[in-house]
User: Fold these one by one.
Assistant:
Number 1:
Amino acid sequence: MSSPDPALLSINAATVRAQWSLPDIISGLTRHGIRGIAPWRDQVAAAGLDNTARRIRDAGLVVTGLCRGGMFPAPDREGRRAAHDDNRRAVDEAVTLGAQCLVLVAGGLPKDRAGRVVSRDLAGAREMVRDGLGQLHEYAHGAGMRLAIEPLHPMYAADRACVNTLAQANALCDELAPDGADGLGVAVDVYHVWWDPDLRAQIAYAGERNRLYAYHICDWLVPTRDLLNDRGMMGDGVIDLPLIRSWMDAAGYRGMHEVEIFSAENWWKRDGDDVLSTCRRRHADAS
Amino acid sequence: MSSPDPALLSINAATVRAQWSLPDIISGLTRHGIRGIAPWRDQVAAAGLDNTARRIRDAGLVVTGLCRGGMFPAPDREGRRAAHDDNRRAVDEAVTLGAQCLVLVAGGLPKDRAGRVVSRDLAGAREMVRDGLGQLHEYAHGAGMRLAIEPLHPMYAADRACVNTLAQANALCDELAPDGADGLGVAVDVYHVWWDPDLRAQIAYAGERNRLYAYHICDWLVPTRDLLNDRGMMGDGVIDLPLIRSWMDAAGYRGMHEVEIFSAENWWKRDGDDVLSTCRRRHADAS
């Protein structure tokens, strides 16, 4: 397997968010010759939307995605409407930033305002996701912004996302907007889907329908010490990244490779420049 | 949904293993009027196999499963042969104990003798599982012992089991011994499969083929603080246990409901009798 084109490297801002503000991250990417970024909405808000859009444009960065919208399920109509309103704002922000897509994390079981799960109705939550996604897609389609559903690992089914396999994400697209050219697609994050025996087939299926909007990489560590913030740098774990990249390539994906690492005890504690140079090297050697 | 028959309660010995030896657990179950047990091999060995078999027989307990065999993948032929030899011993022990099945955890990616994962070939590991399982089934069939493949949650794919969905377990049975009457079936543990959008259909599929050998219950806590040892008591988490039980019932499962809770920071720190009485109550009220 040959190394990936270094120009395809993008960095999800979460990877160095503990070290740097968003303007610092943009400067850092420029310094390291990295050409893609995926910002998070809280950091965009902190730096100012228009200011961020200008900085990103000036730096010549591709915005491989805005993180994130979604979180559709809620215990009542008011909560679901609030989610929809927030998601429309996210679409508008993605448009302003010139993002290739708005990344959607579905949301898990309905929670009350204090953030406590208040339902065990997983099938019902999945229906809320479908309904909310359909409604948001209408808006986003009008705004010219693509929505990328990101299936999350099953260990997040309760509290973060009840869309847990690429097959599920594909089924949602099949139902709501089967042709990816209509602005509904998927984000494939290896951390969430690497274990799936059906992964190759589902990537191919998504590719045939022009749905592969984003590709996120990192690694799965053994042992994994925390469910949320113990992701590994490419090469430090057990995911066969070149293999999955070859499936993405074969399915027609030509977009960037976005490194997204939540790592409270390791990478978030290191110097940001060290993290970025490691990302560059590992993208070349181990992805 | 009506309460389950209290006579169907079984206790996996791991639930109180931090408090009690296996003889103590057997006495405890008798004291609480609980009629099923699933012992672990290390505790059986510590108490002596024949001694344990006699105690269980004297107590009139149903052995809903022996934990566990499996762990098929290994980096070399010698390692796979060692696994096979150990698995044959596990079958023999299950026969001596009169277990309804030997529970199989497939094993994850191949590890060296120090327990370090030495391969990223997940598909290859799955082939080793199929081959090892086929070989073991021949032996177990001759010995009259049923093998129950237990799909483990995808978060264990790397280090514990690369069989991660009931669909995968069903596919293995389809290939190796399609009729459950031939001694190859599945153990459905809600902790591992509750998130699966395909669960109801796969339980029904397994039921039609007489493959539902065991049903394990506990709960998924939000938040989950540890990948391995933070399982919840029924009713304390987000799994819709009566719903999944209704799917098992509809699929023809008439076996016991085995409570299996690994809980380093909570239930393993409580008095064993408190744990057992809570299991009884929650089996009735929240399962």
Number 2:
Amino acid sequence: MKRAISVGAALAAIGLFSAWAARAQPPAPEPGDGPRYSNGTDLIRPANYREWVFLSSSLGLTYEASGSASNRPPTFGNVFVNPSSYRSFMQTGKWPDKTIFVLEFRQSETAASINKNGRFQTTLAVVEAEVKDSRFPDGWAFFNFGSGPPGPAGVGVPPLSGDRAAPCVECHTQHTAVERTFVQFYPTLFEVAKRLGTVKPNYTDP
Amino acid sequence: MKRAISVGAALAAIGLFSAWAARAQPPAPEPGDGPRYSNGTDLIRPANYREWVFLSSSLGLTYEASGSASNRPPTFGNVFVNPSSYRSFMQTGKWPDKTIFVLEFRQSETAASINKNGRFQTTLAVVEAEVKDSRFPDGWAFFNFGSGPPGPAGVGVPPLSGDRAAPCVECHTQHTAVERTFVQFYPTLFEVAKRLGTVKPNYTDP
């Protein structure tokens, strides 16, 4: 009987400790919120990236040269990052291995509802991703999921390569404030990087 | 000894079950991610709203009449909602009691870094909030945290009232697609509301 009580007490203690631990700790990184692949390097489009941490958005911030896109309404670009990598960056100013950024472009509209001047977001235009992962030759890779709905479950798209990857690599090497990421466009993160000294030495404030 | 083994087995089983349960369940709603008050109805500015679920952003979508703000650069408006209410909405198309929206306005810049045409977000301009809470007479309240840094910890701001609240209430009653919220500007949520039939009967698509 005494033994039975001590078993019960042990279980109760474990339960109490678990409940306390769950409350006392900051929100734990979601298990497995990093990149997932098929065929080793084909990135599977994250199903829940809209619930990841939002870094910033822009309007009309295209890769195209001035004027070439002037006849189309500008698109919004929303950037999301997996939560565990976000928390790591806020403490270190650096991106851990297995960081995944999703860049979501959306069409914009104006003169609808109460809005007479500005622009707001509408339908999805295209989904892209940038990944930091030591499995890739130089540690980073870029992906384009296109404009359609997500593909078959569990099937990824291959990293951009050759001529399609070159402009990504060049721009993300020469013009980024922190590692290969445009942290200068993410105001809350840029402050962290400046405070922790992780802005590239050759980066000059715009 | 046999008893000791069964205690060990029980603990191991609990550990395995806990690990399984933690992996099998969707991310749990953060405990206490709803509104917090001082003095009963003064809303405390949420410290971590940037880690909440992003609903959408807009550029130049002001409350002001056409032309009155034309000499100033447009501001971005980012909308965040507490995660547990987001998950509830995605299942029901309705906002549960204790839902809190944070509307964050940020200055915009252009012609910096690689960006020659569009606009991107910079410094914080103002933080506002809208809350659904049965403690308020009509179930909703609006708050303005101003443009400065967060105030003293644990001290809230009172809900807007009288002439300051009237335009909020009027606009959020007459022009909103779902309850008192501009779900028509949150594309991923608008689809859910249309599918679940929670768009107001008198709302007409812009």
